[in-house]
Amino acid sequence: MCRLSALISADYMSPMEPILALETMKEGHDGSGLGLIMRDLGGEFEGLKDYPILSAITSEDGYHTVQEYMESRGFRVKYNWEPTIKLTPAMSIEKRDRYNVIAYEYPPEFVEATEDQKAELLTATRLQLRALGEADQSIYVFSFWPDVVTLKEVGDPLEVGEFFGLDKNPILAKTIFSQGRQNTNYAINLYACHPFFIQGCFTMTNGENTAFVPIREYLTGRGNPAYVGYNSDSEVFAHILHYMRKGLGYPLRYYKDVITPLSSESEFEGRRDAEALRLMKRSLRMLTIDGPNCVIGCDMDGSMFMAQDAKKLRPGVVGGVKGRVGFMSEVCGLASAVPGRDAEKDVFPMKYDMAIVKPGAQEIEVWNQLDGSTSTISLA
Amino acid sequence: MESTGRLDVNHQLGLNDLPYIIRWEDSRCTRCGRCTSVCPVAAIEPGVYERRVVESTGATPLPTTVRKVSSCVKQSTDVMRRCIGCATCRNVCPNDAIAPTFNPANKFNWHANQGGEPYKRGGRRNDNNVSILDRIKFTRISMLTDPALDAGRHEFRVRTYLGRNLPPENLPLKVVGNDLVPDGTPFIPPVREIFPIRIGGMSVGALSPHMWEGLAMGVAYLNEVKGIPVVMCTGEGGMPPRLLKSPFLKYFILQIASGYFGWDEIVHAIPHMQCDPAAIEIKYGQGAKPGDGGLLMASKVLQNIAKIRGVPMFVDLASPPTHQTKYSIEEAVAKMITSMSMAWGFRVPVYPKISGTKTALAVLNNLARNPFAAALTIDGEDGGTGAAYNVSLDKMGHPIASNLRECYLNLVKIGKQNELPLFAAGGVGKRGNLAANAAALMMLGASGTDCGKYIMQAAAGCLGDEQNRCNICNTGKCPRGITTQDPKLFRRLDPDKVAQRVVDVFVSADKELKKIFAPLGRSTELPIGMSDGLSIDDKAVAERLEINYAC
Question: The complex's ipTM?
C-alpha cells in the first residue's frame, strides 16, 4: 500500500521533512520509489513565480530533443536547477542521464496572454514533450507549470531524497506532497508514480481504484487532450479534480460529491443544494469511485484537502499547528513532521468528511457532506 | 381388390420422425383419461390394441393363451398433432405412467411446412449451446490490494437510470456563493431511477389475464413493499383501463409498436392518469424475430382484449413488420419520440427498442444526436416471442453481446456513454443465470437489461426450452395458462403465485448482483463498462468484446 505524506505551511520547508515523515511509516510501504510535488516555491525559485518550470527526466538525447523543441516554440531558459546528485554504493538507485528542473520565459507572443491561454500552451507543450519521448523513453515530463516542481525516481524514498541532494541543497516550498511507492503491483513506470499534476491541480492516493476503467473511459471522452496517461489507476483522481474545478467550474467541496455522491433521497434532504446534487449524481455517475481510496489533493488556489471513499476507507489523518498542517497516511508521520501539535485536534476524515486547509495553514476546515456544514478546527 | 393390411407406408410419418415420443406404461396406467384430455395438441388419444394374455380361470390352474382387446394411450403420428414435449400428461398422471422423451433424430423440420405454410411457433431460438453471456466470467476479484465487500453486510446501491442524463457540461447549474444551484433552465430530461433488470414487453393479449395480473401485482409489491424499483413493459396492446388510471402506472413502461394497438385507449386516458408511466418504449424491432411483425390470433381476441386494444372481437391482429409511417430515422423517428414526449409534457422518458442488428450503430449515432431520445434498448437474437415464423426465430438476428459492446464503445468514443443509456435484452437468464447474465451485460456497457422468457419460466413455470419443447404460445393453447385467453387454460394459473414468484425472482436477483459486485469491489454505482472485470475462454471473442482472455 502507498504511504502519503503532505505538508502545507506558512513558511518554506525542505522536502526532506515530509520524506522523513514517510520514513516513519516505512512499515506500511515497500520503499520502492518517491514522488514529490512542491508548490509555492522559495529559495532560488522565490523570484521566479511567474515563470513556468519544466520538471522532467531525460536521457542525453531526450535533453537535446527538449531543448530543440522548447527553443522552436519560443521558450527561453530563465533558470536551470540541477540536483546535487549523491549516489553511494549502498543506494539501489539507477541514475538516469538528466534530472531537469528548468524555469522558462514564455514565448514573446504569450507574455500578454490570458491565464487560460498560458495554461493551454503549457499543457500542450507538456503533452508534446511527453509524446516526443514516450516511444524510446527518452523523456519523462511530469509538470510544466509556474511555481511547481516535480521529482520522481525509483528507490527507497529517503535514499532518493538524499540522491537528489535535497538534504543539502533543498528546493524550499510551502506545499509539499510526497509519496513513497512506485506502482509495484504492475510493471514499474515513472508515469505511474503519484502525485499526479494537471494545470495547478494535483493529487496522490492510497488504495486501488476498482472503478478505474469506466472513469478513465469517461475522462478520455471529455474532449480534453490532457486526459491521457493513466499508467496508474490513481491518475484519474487528479483529472477528476481538474475536470470538476476547471472544466465544470464547481467549488472545491463538490469534489467529494462527484467521487462519492450521496446515495439516496433521504441523504440529499440535509443539503440545501439537493437539487444540484440530484442532477450531478446522474450526470457524473461514471466518475463515482468505489474505493478503497484516501485522496490527498491540492486545488488550483493552493488549498489542500483529504477525502475518503464512501465505504472501505484507507488510513488518513490531518493535524498540525498554526502555520503547519500535515496530511498523512499515519499518525506517526504527523508526529514526525509537525512536532508539538495537539493530537486531540487531529482529524480522521470519515465517509462524509472532507478536510480542507487553505494556504497559510491557520486552521483545518472539516466539511460534512451529509448536512453541508463546516466545522473549523483552530490550531494553536 | 385391396388387401386389408398394406405395407406401403411411404407417405406416413412414424413415431421416430417426431420430436417427442410418448413412453406409456400399460402396467401403471389406470385408464383415468387425464392425459388424453389435458394434451394441448391432441397428440395422444385413447386407443385399443390386441394382445396375447395367459389366463387361468378354472378351479385348478390351467393356463390358457387367449387374445384380447385392451384400451391404451396412443400417440398420433400426424405431424400437425405431434407431441410437443410439454409433459402436461405426465404432470396430471396419478401413477407416473406416461412421459414424452426427446428424439434427437427427429425429422420434424422436414415436415413442419404442411399445406405450404412455413412453421410458426412461439418461444425462442432453438439453440441449446451455452451462450456467450454464460461463458463470461467475472475474474477481477478484489484481493489484498483492494478489499472485497461483503454482500450481506455492506450497503449496496443496485440502481440504474432510465432517461437521458445531461452531459455534466450542460447541467443547468450555476455557482451562487459556494453552492451550485439550478440556473432556471426549464427543461431537464426526465430520468427514472430503476432496478437494472426490467421485465421486457409482453402484452395483455399475448399473455393471459392471470399471467399479466400476476406480473403486475409482483411488480407493484416489489416497488411498494420491498423498495426494489422494478419496472415492467406492457408490450404492444395497451393495458387494463383501471390500471392506466391507477397510481401504479408509474411502474409500467407503455410500449407503442407498429400496430398502435391500445393507444387510442391510452391517449384518451391521459387526462385521467394519476401519475406518469415509467417510460414510453417505441418498438421498432424484436430480437426474436427481427424485421417481422406481430400477430395476435383471432381466437385470442376476446372481449376484454378487444376492448383494451380498441378493435372488434375475434379478428386477427397483425402488427406490420415496420411502422408504416416511418421511413427515416433522422426525421420520422425523431418526430415520434418528440410526439410521445409531448403527450406527457416532456415528463416521461421516451426511447426506441430495436432488434440486434449490424446497423445498430447507425441508429445509435442518430439517437445520440437527438436530445429527446432517452435510451436505446437492443434486443438480441436470443429474445423470445409469442408468435413468429420458425425461420425468423432460428436464423434471423444478431447476438446481443458484441452488438451491445460495439454500441457502448462507440458511445465511449464520443463521450456519451452516460448520456444515452443502453439497455440490453435477448437471452438474459437463458440458462437460469439471470443476475450473472445481467451483470455481464452491464460490465460490457449496458445500463440495464430486460428479461422475458426467464420471468415466464421462473414465475409461471413456462415449459418452453431450446429443444422446441412446447413453444405453442402462438396457438393460444398454452398448457400452463400463460399465453392463452382460454379461461379453461388460464384458470390453471394462480396470479397470486405468479406475483409471489416475481417477487422471489427480483429479491434474489438483487442479492445475486450484490454477490457478484461485492468481490469486484463495487457497491456505490453499477459497474457499467467495467470490462476489466470480465474474461472469457475464447481469444477471438475476448478480442471482439475487448475483454480479457482467461483459461
Answer: 0.94
